Amino acid sequence: MKKFHVKKPDIKGTVLRLRNIKREDVKAYWKAKKERRERILEERRNSAFGRKMQPAYQFMNRISLVFHALLACVINFVIEAVSRHSAVEAWNYMTGTPVVFLYNAFMIFITFSVVYLVKRRMFVRIIISVLWLALGVANGYMLMKRVTPFNAQDFKVAKDGITLINNYFNGAELVGLAVGITAVVIWVISMWRRGGQYNGKIRRIWALAGVTAWFAVYGIVSDLAVEKRVVSTYFGNIAFAYEDYGLPYCFMASVFNTGITEPNEYNEETIMKISDQGKMTRNETGRSESELPNIIFIQLESYFDVAEAEFFTTSEDACPNLHAMYENYSSGYFKVPSIGAGTANTEFEVLTGMNLRYFGPGEYPYKTVLKNRVSESAATALGALGYGTHALHNNGGNFYSRARVFNNTGFDSYTSKEFMNILQTTENGWAKDDILIQHIMDAMDTTEGQDFVFGISVQGHGDYPEVKKIENPKILVEGIADEATRNKWEYYVNQVYEMDEFAGNLVKAVEERQEPSVIVFYGDHLPTMGLKAEDLKGRYLYNTNYVIWDNIGLEKEDRNIPSYQIMADVLGRLDIHSGTVFNYHQERRKTKNYLADLELLQYDILYGDQYVYGGKLPITEGHMVMGVRDVTLRNVIAHLEEGYSLYGENFTRSSRVYVNGERQKTTFLNNTRIDLPETVFEDEDVIVVCQYGSSDTLFRKSDEYIYRDGELIVQEGTATDKTKSWVEQLDEED
């Protein structure tokens, strides 16, 4: 076999040459480099491909503005055809709203103006075209899978989305995606060499001035388009906005229009007037401590009452438990801010009482303002009255940045799937919801008084399979001719049936505690099924369903309610008046300037000077711990040949074992046993079990255990400090 030898670098010689270098040598070097470059360019121009394309390049440069305009129109049409999954729909959009189409084409045209700053104009045109087309493809695929279009805020959840890639892409799609991306990258790279260069002289100052002028013109045109209502800066429905105003404008709006823009009348005097001189920040209740009930909110993933669908029937009632609750307890339609996706945004409205209509289009506050800023919420409002506050979710703790957000919004604990021994999953791999019940009970057991529990389910999550995955479904779907569509709905309906069982079982578990309690069940959004308004009895795509179960004799009051009002409504029925925004809803709903003043209040709390608090913030730092169960170790048993078995309590698949700070290879068997097939223990070794989330985030660690003479000696007080925020302790570890 031929051996490869690496030549030792001549450092001394290089230094000597640099010391003796002359000015003439530098000039000669750069002259030779320039001549070499010109020679290479000449060879490329004289290549078969170069000679063939030269007339085309010259033509493009000669009529570049016309060419860019035509190319922009073509690209705009293609991305709309891909987004709308139909060339016919794209044609109807172009001919039906030609001014909107041309406005979006003008936006694409403007981006091509940067080619005048460089010589590789063809290559830059290709790069710009590929980026726009990639945007269209991404949007089209997301609309196919989630209903909600692609926007700039999705980049902020991209890391979370990667963890769910197997839930949205099958093997063939992943291969096709990889091959497609690779082919495009190779082609783009090849065009760097083959695309030719502009032969004329570039006057960069004039070119830069021209590019600046074009962008200034676009700004003027955009202001005019908004003024003449060609487009709008407010998206009541982001999916419909994309259909009406086109992908380029809507995507760029999601880039630059974020957060809440400062309202014109924002000042301390206005906020004091809105908040009744700060009195709305009060925390009080008309109930005695013994009369205060446990309050449990359960957000059911993609749930709605399937009996509301008018285009199919089911072989039996898919929601017997919830239907019984609808008959006996307060219920109605639940107006949510999104369709098919955006779980965290419904969650945000419920927990904070804030209305998302004032935020930028497609924004997720969980990934922006709440990720790094503390804010009051239902947890702080009820915590001020002595409630223990707990969040639970049978999915990853880092998804939508929930672990940090819940810490920043005042929860005492958050139990995510990393702390659950999940044994049952759906056919698509999502954890079933029944796992939540025991963990809800465990969380409530950590406090002696009342509890506020916010549970987020995941079982009803898409993507819904077009092939039959449930061999013997409990519920059959009738009335849908297309087999693939029927399979999707049959899968979904059977998940709804089990979610309904979970709701019934949770009520039973709460009843067994014999404590005054209120449970609110609601759906976060409709499933990703391409539903239309005419498919539903309510004729509205932003309606799911809610019900307020209780064992304290609340009067039944049926009405429709938006998600940002539900918490204030429930607290009001319980004579609880706590939390600034919730108090505002209770006092100002149905009054003059209600929504306008709500916008001012939201801005003040999240982005402004927080005048409403008068310098006394309701929450200054998070204090939340991850999980409520301690991982404990009992003993270590040596295997006959090699390795050990570690026995203890509350192990999960997210448990990692460290010996003297080094991670061990492990095999998770069950919640009481983990095997260490390659570990060799020695006396005085330190053993720690840690619970990790995605991105190697340390959520919680056990006490340290010393291995001595085959026994484990616990070092009490070395575990995660439950009196401090997990975020603070993570930062200390780092």
What does this structure look like?
With 734 residues, the protein is an alpha/beta fold. The protein is globular, with a radius of gyration of 31 Å. A nine-stranded mixed beta sheet has the order 11-4-10-9-2-7-5-6-13, with helices on both faces. Strands 16, 17, 20, 21, 22 and 23 form a six-stranded antiparallel beta sheet that branches. Strands 14-15-19-18 form a four-stranded antiparallel beta sheet, with no helix packed on it. It has three domains: 45-256, no CATH class; 270-613, Alkaline Phosphatase, subunit A, CATH 3.40.720; 630-733, Immunoglobulin-like (Sandwich), CATH 2.60.40. It has 25 helices and 23 strands. A hairpin with a 2-residue loop joins strand 18 (667-670) and strand 19.
The unreliable regions are none
Name of the CATH architecture of the largest domain: 3-Layer(aba) Sandwich
Structure classification: alpha/beta
Overall geometry = globular
Tell me the quaternary state: single chain
Topology, number of strands: 23
What does the radius of gyration come to? 31 Å
Largest sheet: 9 strands, mixed
Instruction: Please count the helical segments.
Output: 25
The total domain count is 3
Q: Name the average pLDDT.
A: 88
Order of strands, widest sheet: 11-4-10-9-2-7-5-6-13
CATH superfamily of the largest domain: Alkaline Phosphatase, subunit A
CATH C-level class of the largest domain:
Alpha Beta
CATH topology of the largest domain: Alkaline Phosphatase, subunit A
Measure the end-to-end span. Answer: 47 Å
